[in-house]
Amino acid sequence: MKLTTLIASAVASALCLSPLAQGQENQKVVPKLSLDLNEVTVSGLSSGGYMATQFHLAHSDWVRGVGVLAGGPYYCAQGDITTALAQCVNKVDGEIDVNGLSAQAATYASEGKLADMSNLKDAKVWLFHGTRDNRVIREVSDLLFEQYKSWTDTQNIKYVNDKPIAHVFPTQHNGTECTSSQSPYIGNCGYDAAGDMLTHLVSDLTPPDDTLSGQLYVLNQTAIAGSNAKTLASEGFVYVPKSCAEGERCRAHISFHGCNQYADAVGDAYTTQTGLNAWADDNNMVVLYPQTKKSLFMPLNPQGCWDWWGYSSPDYANREGDQIKAVEALLSSLNTASTQNTEETTGE
């Protein structure tokens, strides 16, 4: 994974402890971390699921696994919000040319805008769609499954599509009514989606215990990623287990929230209630939670979605896209975290 000048300069940016932090230690900055950035996994819900797939294809040379909840095929919107709404969410007007969408991925790869598509052959892929989800319908998620089957060994793909769950991130006991698609889109479903996903993506994980050792820290996304973060919130988050803070070599997982699930909309619900932190805590895994923001005009993104239709840049779906470059910068900055900056976030 290459460090650009932008990423290198992020070493001097502010990395602060969140007022929502878990644990008792009153640290002000992200500890210096040692991360294995050649074995990264990513996941996301809804628009975050679309972004997880885009990020996976952009960097499949070092992103080894992807989990997508309620997402559709790569490049479904084809850079057009009208197409996004007509074919890629809660309805499918006309046939979606999934072969054409996959051909665009191949074209981007030939141009160096995606990693070599052959990397996907050995990737681990976990897909989820709830039978009560009417925000992103089954037909849309099925097409992502068909795409990955054309790229990846089928034994490496797990598609969970038989549970009566709405448009939520399902958990064992956190969140709201499981069969209702309502904020914060975390569902109390008696089903540990985070664990099911991570144990498929990463081998030899230890089931979590009842106590978290780590803390949730704030990242200054603007300082780290510069102009590439212009459509993101000023702050993102990272969960750091105690073992990682104390110098253990750790894995990294990136989790992309869904629409209306960014921190300004749901507080710490997504960054603390999905179950990802519990699994990360006992398995030497840092979890990065980049954050978007809503925008009512130029660009139009009133629900704070990740860009899967082109509002941030024409290259939104490949490694030249602003948001993908910004998240790469955030991840890389963690591996060279500086203790020089001691500004503590006070919160609202």
Describe the structure.
- With 348 residues, the protein is α/β, with parallel strands linked by helices.
- It has one domain.
- The chain is built from twelve helices and 15 strands.
- It has helices at 5-9, 47-58, 81-87, 98-110, 138-151, 193-201, 221-225, 242-245, 263-266, 269-273, 276-281, 322-334, and strands at residues 15-17, 34-35, 40-45, 63-69, 124-128, 157-160, 169-171, 176-177, 186-188, 215-220, 235-240, 249-256, 285-289, 295-296, 300-301.
- Strands 1, 2, 3, 4, 5, 6, 10, 11, 12 and 13 form a ten-stranded mixed β-sheet that branches.
- The longest helix has 14 residues, at 138-151.
- The protein is globular, with a radius of gyration of 18 Å.
- The model is unreliable at 2-27 and 337-348 (pLDDT under 50).
- This is Polyhydroxybutyrate depolymerase.
- Keywords: Signal.
- Residues 1-23 form the signal peptide.
- It comes from Alteromonas profundi.
Topology readout:
Layout: H1 5-9, E1 15-17, E2 34-35, E3 40-45, H2 47-58, E4 63-69, H3 81-87, H4 98-110, E5 124-128, H5 138-151, E6 157-160, E7 169-171, E8 176-177, E9 186-188, H6 193-201, E10 215-220, H7 221-225, E11 235-240, H8 242-245, E12 249-256, H9 263-266, H10 269-273, H11 276-281, E13 285-289, E14 295-296, E15 300-301, H12 322-334
Parallel strand pairs: 2-12, 3-4, 3-12, 4-5, 5-6, 7-9, 8-9, 12-13
Antiparallel strand pairs: 1-10, 10-11, 11-13, 14-15
Average pLDDT across residues? Answer: 90
SSE order, one letter for each helix or strand: HEEEHEHHEHEEEEHEHEHEHHHEEEH
List unreliable stretches of 5+ residues.
Answer: 2-27, 337-348
- Please give the domain count: 1
Bin the helical content: 25-40%
Quantity of strands, as a count: 15
Strand content: 15-25%
Q: How many alpha or pi helices?
A: 12
Q: What does the largest sheet look like?
A: 10 strands, mixed
Q: Distance between the terminal alpha carbons, to the nearest Å?
A: 36 Å
| Structural classification | alpha/beta
Q: What is the overall silhouette?
A: globular
Q: For the CA atoms, what is the radius of gyration?
A: 18 Å
